[in-house]
Amino acid sequence: MRLYVGGLPYQTDEQELRDVFGQIGNVTFATVITDRETGRSKGFGFVEFEDDDQARAAIDQLNGSMLGNRTITVNEARERPAGGGNRGGGYNDRGGQGGGYRGGRY
C-alpha cells in the first residue's frame, strides 16, 4: 500500500522519511517530492510498506503527529487521474498560458 505523507518539513530527506516510517514496519519505498528546477522539497512524499497492515498502522500512529516543527498528514495515496499531467487552469495546448484574445474583434 502506498501512503501519501504531507506537511513534511522542507529539510526532510528520503532517509529520514524511511527512518520515521521504518519504526512502524518494513518500508520498501520512500521518496520526498522535489521541485524539478530548484531541487527543493515540496513538503510531501510517498512511502510504501511490505504489508498493508503495517501501512494502516502507520496511518493510525503517524497521521497528525509532529515531524520536526510540523504536523504531518498520512493517508492512503490516491491514484493520479488517467492521462496524467495538469492541463487545466488556463493553459493552452502548447504549454503556455492562454491570452485574452480569442480570434474575435477587439
TrEMBL record:
Q: Which UniProt keywords apply?
A: RNA-binding
Sorted alphabetically, which Pfam families does this protein's record hold?
Answer: RRM_1
Return the InterPro entries for the record.
Answer: Nucleotide-bd_a/b_plait_sf, RBD_domain_sf, RRM2_NsCP33-like, RRM_dom, SLIRP/GR-RBP-like
Name all RRM domain ranges: 1-79
Record's compositionally biased regions (Gly residues): 82-106
SMART domains per UniProt: RRM
What are the start and end residues of every segment in region (Disordered)?
72-106
Which stretches are annotated as coiled coil?
none
GO-annotated molecular function: RNA binding
Q: In which domain of life is the source organism classified?
A: Bacteria
- Protein name as it appears in the record: RRM domain-containing protein
Report the source organism. Dictyobacter vulcani
